[in-house]
Structure formats: C-alpha cells, structure tokens
Design brief:
By secondary structure, the protein is mostly beta strands. It has one helix and 23 strands. The strands form five sheets. Strands 1-3-4-11-6-9-12 form a seven-stranded mixed sheet, with no helix packed on it. A hairpin with a 4-residue loop joins strand 3 and strand 4. Its EC number is 5.3.1.17. It comes from Sanguibacter inulinus.
C-alpha cells in the first residue's frame, strides 16, 4: 500500500508538474494480476484497483491501517470498469458486469476478486474493479447495484459542452453507508467538461477515476484553490485525489466517463461551493 500524506493549499503554488502528479495522481490503478492501493491522509481514504487477469486476488490488510483484516474498521465501494468480474465476500459470490457497483460494510472479513464469465472478451482484457474505501463507525448490509439500477440525474447542457448522465450508486437515497458516496458519470457525445462552473466542498475528499477515454486522448483536470489553480494531464484509467479545499473540474480531448467517490463530514450530494467562472485564476 502506497502512503501519501495530506497537503496544505499553501504548498500548491510552489509545486512543479512532477510533484503535483506524485501527490494527487494515481497513474497505475490497474496492474494485471495485482491489487494496487493508495492510502491518502485526506479523510483517510484508500483508493485502488484489482485486475485479476485470470487469478484470484485476496484483499489483505497492511501496516498502514493496523487491522486484522481490511474491513475491520472500514467500508468499501467497488465499481467494475472492465469485463465481468466477481467479488466473494465471506463466502458469498457476487457477479459484477461492466458498470456494476458492490458495497461491502465494516466487518466483512474475507474479500476475493476474480474474473467472471467472458471477462477476457472486454477491451480491457478482463475485470477491472475500482476500489474506494473509508473508515466506518458501524456496519451496513452488503448491496449489489447492477447497471441502470442507481438513481440517474441528467445534468448540464450541450451548449456549454457539459451534457452528462450521472448515476448515483452509493448514496443516502440508495445504498446506505457510513461515509462513502459513489457513482458514475458519462458525458454525452460532443460534451467534454465534467462540470463547469467548478466547485469545492470543504467537508469531503473526492476522487475521480477517468475511464472510457481513447488511448490517444487526455483529460485536463483542474485542481488547487480557485485563485491558484493548477492542472493534471490524465490518461485513461488513472485516478485523481482531490482534497476538500481543491477545486475539481476537467475537460477532455474526447468524451469519457468517470467514477466519482467521496468521504468526509457528510453525504449530501449538493453540499458544494460553486466557483463562478470569472473568479477562477
């Protein structure tokens, strides 16, 4: 498990490209035959990915979380962005087709990831299970959300190049959790901005996993304080860690999708502080 300490917004103006990427970009989320995990001290979130590649991969604890098993004091949201995968939780196996989401609550001891039927036929070459975990104070039931079963919100406008469909998967009106709020947004053809005007939310850390981006395309992800913005150039299936004080918005050279996930003070989707475009620097 890679560990990244929290940053202060005053540090951002002095950071160059390499340091920004080391702090906030997770480049290798999916590695065939491995589970990758990054522990950020921003709200003690863990992000990562599992790519079974024909093997069974067990989610094990590490020294960074000081626990007997990974979900002893945590919960986790899992979204599959590859071919069909399976997650076996304490002996019960769940099948996750592309776009499905599984929530596992505190106290689930044994978690194993594997490819499902026909996984290799997907362009990704198998299951790619994105992981987002946060500390949990109690236990909520395991829940599987299949594609299309979440709460969909249509947002934006084609005239401002940000027409998008947002599906809420783990949220107060759907799958219950302690902290984790999670969903998937897909841009409509011809739209490139994932949100604009941009916003911050001082009460939560948010992470984006960009996917379904052509190999030769990139997303320019804006970050930093609204009056001290910086940017990250992000490729397909890379993740961005956005601290509570950081603006987050992105524009792509092609249409794309992204998994968004948050943890922190509350779970209110609309608890955000919009930044008017003419105030961004």
């Amino acid at each position: 498990m890679e560990q990244r300490y929290a940053t202060n917004p005053d540090q951002i103006p002095g950071m160059g490209t390499d340091e920004l990427r080391e702090r906030f970009l997770v480049e290798a989320v999916f590695v065939p035959g491995e589970i990758t995990l990054v522990y950020t001290h921003h709200d003690r979130v863990v992000v990562g990915g599992a790519q079974p590649a024909g093997q069974e991969l067990a989610l094990l604890p590490s020294d960074e979380i000081r626990a007997e098993y990974f979900l002893e004091n945590r919960e986790i949201g899992i979204v599959n962005v590859g071919g069909t995968g399976t997650v076996t939780a304490d002996g019960e196996t769940f099948t996750l087709p592309t776009g499905a989401c599984l929530y596992l609550g505190r106290g689930v001891r044994d978690v194993v990831f594997a490819d499902g039927p026909g996984a290799a036929e997907h362009p990704a070459g198998g299951a790619q299970l994105y992981l987002f975990s946060a500390p949990a104070h109690t236990t909520y039931p395991t829940r599987l959300v299949l594609p299309g079963e979440g709460t969909t919100r249509e947002l934006g406008d084609q005239l401002t190049s940000n027409r998008r469909s947002l599906e809420q998967l783990i949220h107060p009106g759907g799958v219950q959790s302690c902290q984790v709020v999670m969903g998937v947004t897909s841009l409509h053809p011809g739209s490139m901005w994932n949100t604009m005007p941009a916003h911050t939310h001082e009460r939560r850390t948010e992470c984006y996993l960009y996917f379904d981006l052509p190999e030769d395309a990139r997303v320019i992800h804006l970050c930093g304080q609204p009056t001290q913005t910086r940017h990250l150039v992000v490729a397909d299936r890379q993740a961005v860690i956005s601290p509570s004080w950081s603006l987050h918005s992105g524009v792509g050279t092609a249409a794309y999708s992204f998994v968004w996930a948050m943890a922190g003070e509350n779970q209110a989707f609309d608890d955000m502080d919009a930044v008017p475009v003419d105030q961004i620097r």
